[in-house]
Amino acid sequence: MKLIFEYVRHKNWETESYTKECDSFRIPSYIAEKMDYSDYMTIVLRNNILDETFLANYLGTVDLGLAEYVLDKLKDKSIDDSDIGSQGWEAYIENDKVMITVMFSTEDDEKVYIDRKEVTYAMLKWKKFLERKFDSPNYQEIINTEDVYK
Predict the structure, then answer these.
(1) Is residue 111 a contact partner of residue 100, using CB atoms and an 8 Å limit?
(2) Using only C-alpha atoms, what is the Rg of the chain?
(3) Which of 9, 103, 93 is nearest to 54 (CA)?
(4) CB neighbours of 27 closer than 8 A, spacing ≥ 6?
(5) Which of the residues 23, 24, 88, 135 has the least number of beta carbons within 10 Å of its own beta carbon?
(6) Arithmetic mean of pLDDT, 104-108
(7) What's the pLDDT tens digit per position in 57-88?
C-alpha cells in the first residue's frame, strides 16, 4: 500500500494555515471529495484499495500522542488483542493483524485486516512526519508499507 503524507493549505479571510494529512496514493482525498459516497466505495472496492484508504484515513486522525501510544502497543509482541482506535476509526490488534473499520461500525460495514508489521511501519513513518517541522508547503512524502519486508 502506498500512502501520501503532505501539508494541506487552509485559508480564510485573514489567516492561512497548514495541516498535516495522510492520503491514499491511488485515490487521494481531493478526488474522493468530489464524489458521492456510493461512487467512491464502488471505485475503492473495484480497485481493491479498501485497505489503503482505511489505513490512510485512520492515520490521518492520529495525533502525535496517540501515535506514540499505538506504536508501543504494536511493537509489544506480547499484546495480541488491544484497542488502538482513534476518534474516527475503530482499530484493534488481533494477533499479527490490525483490523480497521469506521467508528460505530455494524456487522454489515466494511472491515480491513492489515498485517501488523505494515501498520507499525506506516505508524512509525506517520509519527516522524508529525514530528517534522514545517519548512515547505509543497513537502510531500510517499511511503510504501511493503518496504517493511525489504
Answers:
(1) yes
(2) 16
(3) 103
(4) 40, 43, 44, 47, 49, 53
(5) 135
(6) 75
(7) 999 999 999 999 999 999 999 999 999 999 99
Cβ-based neighbours of 22, under 8 Å, separated by 6 or more: 3, 4, 5, 56, 57, 59, 60, 126
Q: Residue 106 above 80 pLDDT?
A: no
Around Cβ 93, how many Cβ atoms within 10 Å?
A: 20
Closest CA to 58 of 9, 106, 111: 111
Across all residues in the chain, what is the average pLDDT?
A: 92
CB 74 within 8 A of CB 83: no
First to last CA, the chain: 14
Between residues 62 and 40, the one the model is more confident about:
62
The residues facing 144 across adjacent strands are 2
Is the pLDDT assigned to residue 140 strictly greater than 90? yes
C-alpha cell belonging to residue 57: 484515513
Parallel/antiparallel/unpaired status of strands 16-24 and 97-102: unpaired
